[in-house]
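> call design_seq(struct)
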């Protein structure tokens, strides 16, 4: 066994895979790296809605083998359920999950990167299993596809989010030169905006109506507020012009019934199709740890390092600083983790490694009929940008992004984002 520092990355989806690859890129052979994930593939979540509304099984095109991907960079992989993290003992407890019945084991780390995402808490929404739909994974995506193809009779549609419970882990964080960290009522509202537009196209294409059948709702004052007021203002203007109905400040979903969705503010909406996104809740094993905030999100500074335990990092949805919960932000965080660990092992200068996280809401959402919307905004965090574009070019970019991700096994070239920006914002501005 090598005596190099052992970096254990918990989770192997966008943030975990990205962090592991960046650690290898920047720290080179100075470290040994192991990724632990309960499943052995990467689930490319953002394109599930596009596949489902086109009537395709998302499982056929949206998974990437983790073990062989990581092996390309000499990164070890263990398929296991992480059960506990002890930051004082520097120990991970896990149970191998390839087959049931495995005995619990422990592993020592020198550095740990928590990238286990969150629990999407559908189990906290009463009536969801019987009456609700969503498109956050292959199972639910295919359930919705089946419902649309075989059961949906053309009745009203309700689309929206449950309330997000942000912890206190961001209270000391300042972004973009001093802006206090904002607080969100919804974890990630790109998906409801995306599905409302795709659903409207689906209704039209199937001769079942249009936007006026759809009510979109949000627990917040403004849907997708993290995209910036100007962007959302424009989106809402376009949406109301098309005939969508809009309900805000619903506070939370209390129940889904056969008839519709009931909200914590006492109101309700009638719907045959109830397409919802739940609360993003930290995993139980993170709750109450000295590295976690009041909800269980892992506390970090703007270099993704835990202030009390400098050998503990977090990236992606599991990190308190990742609000809204976006894979794009997790990817940027993985890169910072790579640089920090490279700095610690003497492979990168502090000047380069210590550049702080400057989060950007970067979202390309499918609208159906080969069209998409493109948002690039940092104004919610105190930055200067708010850009919204719609049309065929953003759709092309969304599909190309996925193809490039799979082709490069997650190692998106530096020019990928710049090229998207140039195409969407300059050359083919809608
Ligand atoms: C419908 C939809 C559309 C979206 N569209 C976009 C978009 O356009 N752009 C964007 O930036 N973001 C988008 N997002 C958000 C994006 O999917 C998430 O932010 C991203 O997946 C978070 O990455 P992550 O690696 O932090 O967590 P996850 O993707 O949740 O991955 C966590 C990993 O950890 C593993 N894991 C969890 N617990 C354990 C455990 N105890 N033991 C072992 N392994 C464990 C899981 O198996 C998983 O592989 C969308 C989300 C949804 C639901």
């Amino acid at each position: 066994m090598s005596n190099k520092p052992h970096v254990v990355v918990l989770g192997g989806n966008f943030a975990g895979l990205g962090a592991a690859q960046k650690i290898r890129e920047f720290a080179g052979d100075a470290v040994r790296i192991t990724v632990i994930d309960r499943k052995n593939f990467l689930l490319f979540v953002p394109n599930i809605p596009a596949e489902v509304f086109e009537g395709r099984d998302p499982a056929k095109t949206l998974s990437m083998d983790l073990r062989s991907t990581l092996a390309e960079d000499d990164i070890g992989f263990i398929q296991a359920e992480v059960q506990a993290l002890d930051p004082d003992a520097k120990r991970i407890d896990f149970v191998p999950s390839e087959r049931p019945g495995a005995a619990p084991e422990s592993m020592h780390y020198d550095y740990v990167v928590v990238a286990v995402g969150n629990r999407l808490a559908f189990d906290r929404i009463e009536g969801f299993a019987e009456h609700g739909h969503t498109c956050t994974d292959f199972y639910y995506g295919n359930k919705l596809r089946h419902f649309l193809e075989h059961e949906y009779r053309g009745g009203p549609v309700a689309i929206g989010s449950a309330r997000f419970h942000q912890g206190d882990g961001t209270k000391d964080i300042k972004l973009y030169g001093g802006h206090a960290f904002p607080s969100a009522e919804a974890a990630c509202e790109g998906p409801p905006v995306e599905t409302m537009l795709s659903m409207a196209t689906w209704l039209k294409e199937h001769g079942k109506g249009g936007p006026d059948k759809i009510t979109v709702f949000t627990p917040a004052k403004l849907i997708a507020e993290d995209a910036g007021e100007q962007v959302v203002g424009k989106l809402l203007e376009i949406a109301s012009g098309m005939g969508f109905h809009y309900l805000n400040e619903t506070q939370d979903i209390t129940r889904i019934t056969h008839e519709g969705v009931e909200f914590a503010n006492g109101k309700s909406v009638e719907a045959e199709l109830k397409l919802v996104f739940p609360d993003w809740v930290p995993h139980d094993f993170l709750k109450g740890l000295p590295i976690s905030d009041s909800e269980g999100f892992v506390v970090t500074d703007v270099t993704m390092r835990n202030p009390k335990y400098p050998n503990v990092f977090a990236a992606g949805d599991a990190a308190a600083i990742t609000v809204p919960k976006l894979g794009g932000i997790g990817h940027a965080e993985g890169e910072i983790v790579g640089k920090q660990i490279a700095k610690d092992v003497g492979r990168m200068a502090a000047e380069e490694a210590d550049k702080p996280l400057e989060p950007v809401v970067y979202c390309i959402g499918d609208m159906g009929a080969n069209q998409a919307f493109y948002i690039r905004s940092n104004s919610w965090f105190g930055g200067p940008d708010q850009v919204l574009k719609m049309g065929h070019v953003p759709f092309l970019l969304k599909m190309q992004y996925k193809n490039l991700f799979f082709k490069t096994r997650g190692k998106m070239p530096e020019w990928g984002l710049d090229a998207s920006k140039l195409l969407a914002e300059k050359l083919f501005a809608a």
